């Protein structure tokens, strides 16, 4: 992935010139502009008007990214046999669920942080016994104490568990029949095909966590635009906007092939977590945009960009409507441009009506 970086809404000279040309082009049919604070006669009747409002403005930059899932891994075969059952891609397996079957024998997902490596039966002791017993107790099986000793009581609970999962009720745990992971797994792909004869340690499933994230990048020169915890918006292919938060910003710069035999500018990886309450669960993976705030002005006066006029001798103004429809051109200083509005300062007040040429 090589997302591009765009800066919509930058207050450049070109943007100002464009805004002025648009305003001038629309306003020429309405009034003949004079100097600052020059009154015009009744010209507002042929144009729309908008109030000068007090508001907060935010300028945004857009990063191209991709919606996917956090983390990835593989489930490996614990022994030999024919693969007789596979879950579908996208299926979520919770602890206690069957990951796949070999020779019609289930391989069950259990919660834990280390793999099974030996058979467990009465008389066996060790930390792996505790790990298995804790996982079994989490599934609701009782009658034993989760500790480092595999007793007859453990064996009885194991038999109940084996019957519930469709395995032979032996009371002993075959390491090939369980797979430990920190939590539920989402199947993202298959490493083997149904009917294939497996060898030990052969990849069977490709997996991810169930936590959706967006991965994007920011050029090193723009590192100050993003920070851990910053609020952002994720724009989906459907146009839906999902709130999110920056989870991490990498510290190791990378470069990519620029497609012309050279390398791109250095970039840093950025991970975004979409809001769980509104995340786009309709998409497993999708190209998206991440909008980050690059500048904010709070409690400022603003008007539509189209209300700006170009004044003789340079500079900008707005045409303020007064009593009787009279128009006064007032010089203003422009600030932040965002979302079709522009910040203004000058001899103007909140609530005044300004001409917006049609």
Give an overview in words.
The protein has 358 residues and is mainly β. The chain folds into 3 domains: 9-59 and 296-356, conserved putative lor/sdh protein from methanococcus maripaludis s2 fold, CATH 2.40.420; 62-69 and 211-294, Elongation Factor Tu (Ef-tu), domain 3 (Beta Barrel), CATH 2.40.30; 73-208, Muramoyl-pentapeptide Carboxypeptidase, domain 1. It is 11% helix and 41% strand. It is built from 3 helices and 23 strands. The protein has helices at residues 13-27, 127-138, 152-165, and strands spanning 5-6, 39-40, 48-51, 53-69, 73-76, 81-85, 92-93, 98-102, 105-111, 178-181, 185-190, 197-198, 203-208, 212-219, 231-235, 241-249, 267-274, 286-304, 308-310, 316-321, 327-338, 341-346, 353-356. The strands form 4 sheets. It has a 6-stranded antiparallel β-barrel. Strands 10-9-8-6-12 form a 5-stranded mixed sheet, with helices on one face. The chain has a 4-stranded antiparallel sheet with strand order 5-13-11-7, with no helix packed on it. The longest helix is centred in the N-terminal third of the chain and has 15 residues, at 13-27. It is elongated.
